[in-house]
Each structure stands twice: as structure tokens, then as C-alpha cells.
## 1
Amino acid sequence: MKIYHKEIRFETRGELDVVDLTGKVENIVNESKVKNGLVNVFSIGSTAAISILEYEPGLKNDLKNILDRIVPKDMEYEHHLRWGDYNGHSHIRASLIKSSLTVPLVNGSLVLGTWQQIIFIELDVRPRNRRVMVTVMGEE
């Protein structure tokens, strides 16, 4: 079995910026030469998340709206009191969405539906330099 790692680096525009990583992940899969296996996409950081979404403006806005309802920004979080950085909601949102995603790889292609894209969600309150680790595991 072959294991191939590569990091994606990029800047975000700040809270609730949604970045489509699908093309970058596909490029890494091609570089790896792995044909059948699994691809893990992992966000390095505790105030960001990885998920799958149809990457279109309406759904990106719906995602932002539902996060505001489920984990409101304007609540008092103990994290705020301890650290004063006012991103307690960012950590909670990240823990609910999760920091990684695994996608099957068959015949050199990610197994994604027509409208499924791999997305990174910035949950911190400010723009950030981000790192995402992609690990491709399987057989050539």
C-alpha cells in the first residue's frame, strides 16, 4: 500500500469564507499515482472545518445562516471570558462540522456525486493563513 501526503496552503477572507478544495485535492490524487483507496482531507487548526456541499452561492449563504442559528456568534462563551478572543463560537462550530473528511478513490477518481464538492469552511473571526493536509492511501 502506498501513502502520499501533500499540504494545501491558502488564505481565507475571514469568518464563514467557504473555499472549494475539490480541484486541488484531485490534483494531489493525480500526483500520488494511487488508483484505488481512500483520500483524507484534514484541516490543521481548531477553528475551521472540512465538509461536502454543492458549491453554489445559495447553499453557501444557507450554511452561514444555519450556523448563525445553531451556534450564535453573540452568545457569551466561557472561551471568550478566558481568552478574550471572541471566537468561542468558532471552536464549537468546528467541533460540530468536524476537521476531516474521507472520500473513496476508485480508478484514480474521487467518488463524489455530481453536485458534491469538498469544501473548507473558515470559522474564525478573522482572515487566516490556512493549511490542509491531504493523505492519499491505496494501491497504484
## 2
Amino acid sequence: MKRIYSVLVENRSGVLCKVAGLFSRRCFNIDSLAVGETDDPSVSVMTIVSSGDVRTIEQIEKQLNKKLDVIKVKTFSESQSISRELMLVKVKYNKNNRRDIMEICDIMKADIIDMSKTNLMIQICDEPEKVKLFINMLSSISIVEIARTGTLALQKCLDVEN
């Protein structure tokens, strides 16, 4: 089972290393990790996606809450959140496949953001599963390079916020 951890931490050097070390020491896998400042420059939010059984999921949350640099931990499932991932992908194109690439971009709501005589750079920002689907759709085309962010997620808006 996958779980998303939204972890508010003090924005200081070494905090990321401490959190990553917690996962590695206990052999917990990090499927995705994204970190950035919040509206308060002294606080960052880490969005960590991890998977495991119920016991592992509980242990991760408990261990995160024990860290001194951690301010607050929110845990939620994929169904309780809105998730997005950004990907830039550079592909080789020619006159034979250019139309196909443009159609795939149109269907997947991706944007061509740069081009040369032989390469196109495409940007997609969508749910992680749709980003994977986009890669699969481009697999018959020569992918030159890919850069992806980790998953960013926020808990869905509820009438009663906690």
C-alpha cells in the first residue's frame, strides 16, 4: 500500500539528510521525494511517497514524528489527495513522427516548450500515473533525456479542515 507523507520541517541544512537517513537505516523505500519552501522561508515541506505494509506505514509516521527538526507530519492515501508531478522530456523527431508526437501531446495535455532541427522538449504536469502513461506513449519515439520532479500532493479540500 502506498502512503503520502506531508512533512513540515525546519528549513535548515542537514534536515533532508536526517529524514533520508531514517528511511535508509530502517530499509524503508522512498518512491518519491520533493522538498520546497513554504510561504514561511524558515519552514519547508517534504512530500514523501513510500509503500509497505500497514506496520511499515505506521512505523514511518512514528519515526518521522520523533525527529527534532520535524514540525508536523500529515499522512494520507492517494485517494485522499490531489497529486501532481512535473516532467520535462526531450525527444528526437523527424518529419515522419512529428505529427504523432504533437497528437500525443494534444491528447495528454502536454506542451512543446523548446525545439531545434532534431529535438523537441515537452513539458507535462499531471498525476504521476498519467506521467508514466505519457512516457509509455513516447516509448516508440527516441527519448533523449527525461527530468522529473517527485510527486507533490496536498490533502483534498474538506468542509472541516484539521
## 3
Amino acid sequence: MGNLLYVIAVILIIAWLIGFIGFNLGGIIHILLVIAIIAVLLRVIQGRKII
């Protein structure tokens, strides 16, 4: 389950970067970034290694 959160966070960060550089999706892409950060913070709070 924790590994899945990390994979989702990485995918969301990559999607945010693509959107930030190439496309103009407005606030949706920033919501994806916030979700990715929350997923990484959950892993840190649970005491698991990020990488």
C-alpha cells in the first residue's frame, strides 16, 4: 500500500511538471501537486523510507 502511494505521488509530480511546462490547465495541475505532496508526507509520517 505504501509503495502504491509513492508511485502515485511520483506520477502526479511528473504530471504537474508536464502541465507546468507545456500546458495551461489552471488550478487542476496544482491540486495534483498538493495531492502528491500529501502522499509523500503520509509516508514520512508513517516512518517509511521515501526512496
